[in-house]
Structure formats: C-alpha cells, structure tokens
Description:
Elements: E1 20-25, H1 28-38, E2 42-43, H2 54-58, E3 62-66, E4 72-77, E5 98-101, H3 107-116, E6 121-128, E7 131-137, E8 143-148
Parallel strand pairs: 1-4, 5-8
Antiparallel strand pairs: 2-3, 3-4, 6-7, 7-8
Amino acid sequence: MLSTTSTFALTPGILRRVHHIAFNVVDLNASRHFYGQILGLHELTGEEVPSTLKTLVAEGKVANFVTPDGTVIDLFYEPDLAPPDADPQRQFTRANHLAFDIDPALFDRAVAVIQQNQVTIDHGPVTRPTGRGFYFYDPDGFLIEIRCDPI
C-alpha cells in the first residue's frame, strides 16, 4: 500500500494524459460492433495500429478504437473470461465506469441511439448540477456513461 506521507511523488503536470484504456472482452465481434458502430468510435486499422499490437490485431486477439480526444481503447479478446456478477448493479471490478462527454445539444440523440440498439440500460437520463448523464452496459457488462455539461 502506498504511504500518504511519501517523500517520493510525481509533481503535478508530469503525467500528460491518459494514453489508453484496456478492456478484456468475451466476444470481440460484439464489442467491436458496440464501440465502433453504436458508439461511433474510430477503429484503428492498417498503419494506424500501434506497432506493438500489430501481431495481436492480425491474430484477432485485439481491436483498437480511438476517441475524438485521442485516447485509445484496447479490446483484448479473452474468450474464457469469467462472466460479471448476475446482478448488473453489483460491481465486478474496481473500475466503476467509463464516461464519454457529448455536446448538450446531442445528448438526447445519443440516448435514443442507445435505446434503439437495445443496449442494456442501467439508469437515466439523470439531471444534476454538473449536467446530464445516461448509464448503460457494454457487451461484457462494463458500465458506460454518456454525459454533458449543463445547458
């Protein structure tokens, strides 16, 4: 466990940005459809694929998507992955959810797309002082949020 009184620490600004997020997925094709076709993220192909992952992509073990801000989402095919808890409200990982920001004018459209694609919805839309949010699950049961700032 990291001590809260450590004299060794990175100073603010040393970490520049999130480089990538990696998810293990049971059905790579379902996840590719979800992140690429439903959420509209760009799948990296050909020369766009990082050189360190080219072999895994060619073998069908990884798919890579990039968000508009440049964060890469790596999907690692793990067909023997244990299923999430049968109760979708019970977290099965220490990560809580992945949130995508959207223009407030497009929020309702995004909600409609998720509903029309029969994606499993957790809850929402909700309105808070920080904006609006809508929560749903990816094909492996990981919680995703689409959120926007208040109008």
